[in-house]
Amino acid sequence: MNIPAWTKPALYGAVAGAILLAVVGFMWGGWVTGGSAQDIAAKRSAADVVLALTPYCVERSRTDANSVAVLAEFTAATSTGRRTVIEKAGWATPMGADAPNRALALACATALTPV
């Protein structure tokens, strides 16, 4: 079987083009691997859950029977200790969860902090 003379340069060109396309796609084209896409999706969904539950946390702070004492402790706490106060009060524990959500506690502390 005779292979035409143009086959070898065409194959080299195709391989070089594929490599160049992959490099450009991953570097500047926004391509990601499946694992990276799952990590990005997990981070975005966690952020969306916090965003959706922040009003719930603020409402729990208003309807809690012990809210006056907790809010007094909250305003007396340092900016880093406010998250802990909200977690101890249970305001950052979503329904059905066993432990408070740290990101939700931070978002709730931001929402409750007077301007």
From TrEMBL:
What keyword terms does UniProt attach to this protein?
Membrane, Transmembrane, Transmembrane helix
User: Where do the TM regions start and end?
Assistant: 12-34
For the keyword Transmembrane, the answer is: yes
Identify this protein by name.
Uncharacterized protein
Species in which this protein is naturally found: Devosia limi DSM 17137
The organism's lineage is: Bacteria, Pseudomonadati, Pseudomonadota, Alphaproteobacteria, Hyphomicrobiales
